[in-house]
Amino acid sequence: GRESERCASQAMAGSRxxxxxxLAQRLRPTQSLLAPAVAAGAAVxxxxxxxxxxSDVVHPPKQPWDFQGFMSSYDAASVxxxxxxxxxxxxxxxxLARIAYRNLVxxxxxxxxxxxxxxxxxxxxxxxxxxxxxERPGKLSDYLPSxxxxxxxxxxxxxxxxxxxxSLIMKARHNGPDYVFALLVGYKDPPAGIAARETQYxxxxxxxxxxGMPPPLNDxxxxxxxxxxxxxxxxxxDVCTFLTWAAEPEADERKLMGVKxxxxxxxxxxxxxxxxxxxWAPIKTRRLELYQ
Length: 292
What we know:
Layout lengths: L1 H55 L19 H15 L20 H9 L2 E4 L8 E4 L13 H7 L11 H4 L3 H10 L15 E2 L7 E2 L20 H16 L3 H34 L8
Antiparallel strand pairs: 1-2, 3-4
Main location: mitochondrion
Family: Belongs to the cytochrome c family.
Keywords: Electron transport, Heme, Iron, Membrane, Metal-binding, Mitochondrion, Mitochondrion inner membrane, Respiratory chain, Transmembrane, Transmembrane helix, Transport
């Protein structure tokens, strides 16, 4: 009985090993033929991507942003000026759908200022008791309004181009603040031999180098409330600071929480180390003697 079962299991294992060997022999020529083809295809794809990346994209220069760093925070004055630039320059084409008026409170405006700002905006709400939509003054819980009712209207008003929402633009682009800053101040005349386009503008920092958005910033386009000279570079810096804050309104709070946790864990580690030394060190070094 047991001897026959053992022989049967050995025979089955041998047949499985033989089948695996024959399958490997069949696949070996195919693998040897496919391996060079796969390697060549990967090399061509990598070379093509590298050529496109190197020739069509101009990397923006690195800027010294005040808000970057573990212990740094947003400059409230710069965030306020950036919101002013967004409201007077960018909001006519770009939305900020993820930011509500309440998010601005105690960041760059007081609650009274934000309430007055929201009440100046008419918001479509409803339906009412009669089943109809109606307009009402905005309130703190409302989100910033979009300049267009839908994508089709936005494309129609911008010669087919769709202005993106700016709520997460700093996260959606590699090195977001540097890229947006370079894009805003990087408009130039096209190089010699390249004809200008009627409804597009040359900007080497934009993929493809041609963008449908005209140069948005000019010196003096905005009059800052605090008297800061509104140069194009200053406005670009401030609006980049504001948009970076809009992408992460909780960044300062998260950094502060991280510092608190690091302090707490450091103190707990000190207590743990002391307890281990006082409580367990005598036990670990105690000499044990066995008596017979």
